[in-house]
Q: What sequence folds into this?
């Protein structure tokens, strides 16, 4: 990837990109891509979720400056923006694990809504050119088909509602201050070193305990995008000239059953999935898959990693589980079902 250009490269040449949540699952990859393209980066991260260690890979790089602070600390954020004067902002910092968000709705709004507002107040005085906001596919209304950027929005969770509020705030600020705004709606991201125990890291984690897994609803269908592909798309959209909203996904859905079967196949094991009532979510939607037509029109050579290849990468990395993982499974034979390897979608 060559040096990425902004709409006004003469101003952007020596000014950094500010990345909030830069130590996170997606954020650290965005920072690495920006650095490989020669851009200085200012990282804002509070180190929650045991993520600070990820930034040690940039030790000794004078063009990665790390600021350990809370996105909700308006004065501290204002000081960082004044000192760094970023030409662009990538806002990834958020509470995003759905059960955690539901457990403390007030904290979710504090970080995802109030924190976003404080960041917007801080940077607008320093003439940024671009602002990327990581929203979520969870803003979409329930559907049995692919969700496009123009599809109805009707979030059912505290997380989705907080992110939709953030979208509105970012769009208004961008229009008021003539800043190019990119809203991204990622679907299900996966890859090595996850920060939360979503389905794929939980399947991989439980492999250490045997061939019998305890999981939630495996009938749900999701669109799984490798986190490296998401980071690449984000950086390209950041350094482009278009504004608007884009889905980040593959356009293909896979059930939880298919995931378990594919992980079993790749690891040479026959896995059994037991339903764990504690992992079931009351507001779980049955289907969430991206319509990626706009992403493919904008990034014409975007070719997301096939799920089979991506899962092999995860398993080979040995970095499969989150630092906040729960204790090992204690299978209950009362609700088991053997997974059929034929459930894997063709070409996964």
A:
């Amino acid at each position: 990837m060559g040096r990425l250009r902004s709409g006004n490269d003469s101003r952007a040449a020596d000014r950094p990109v500010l990345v909030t949540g830069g130590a996170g699952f997606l954020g650290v990859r965005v920072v690495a891509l920006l650095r490989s393209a020669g851009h200085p980066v200012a990282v804002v991260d509070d180190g929650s979720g045991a993520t600070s260690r990820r930034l040690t890979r940039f030790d000794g790089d004078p063009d990665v400056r790390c600021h350990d602070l809370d996105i909700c600390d308006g004065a501290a954020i204002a000081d960082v923006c004044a000192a760094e004067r970023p030409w662009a902002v990538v806002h990834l910092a958020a509470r995003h694990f759905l059960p955690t968000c539901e457990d403390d709705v007030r904290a979710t709004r504090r970080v995802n809504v109030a924190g976003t507002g404080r960041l917007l107040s801080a940077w607008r005085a320093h003439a940024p050119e671009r602002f990327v906001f990581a929203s979520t596919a969870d803003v979409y209304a329930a559907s049995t088909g692919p969700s496009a950027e123009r599809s109805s929005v009707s979030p059912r969770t505290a997380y989705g509602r907080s992110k939709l509020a953030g979208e509105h705030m970012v769009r208004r600020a961008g229009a008021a201050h003539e800043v190019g705004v990119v809203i991204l709606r990622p679907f299900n991201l996966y890859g090595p070193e996850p920060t939360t125990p979503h389905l794929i890291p939980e399947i991989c984690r439980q492999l250490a305990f045997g061939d019998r897994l305890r999981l939630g609803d495996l009938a749900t269908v999701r669109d799984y995008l490798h986190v490296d592909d998401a980071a690449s798309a984000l950086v390209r959209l950041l350094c482009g000239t278009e504004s608007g909203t884009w889905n980040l996904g593959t356009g293909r859905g896979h059930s939880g059953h298919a995931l378990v079967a594919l992980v079993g196949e790749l690891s040479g094991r026959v896995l059994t999935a037991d339903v764990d009532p504690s992992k079931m979510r009351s507001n779980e939607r049955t289907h969430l898959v991206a319509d990626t037509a706009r992403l493919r029109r904008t990034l014409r050579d975007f070719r997301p990693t096939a799920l089979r290849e991506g899962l092999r990468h995860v398993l080979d990395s040995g970095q499969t589980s989150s630092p906040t993982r729960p204790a090992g499974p204690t299978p209950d034979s009362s609700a088991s079902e053997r997974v059929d390897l034929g459930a894997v979608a063709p070409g996964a």
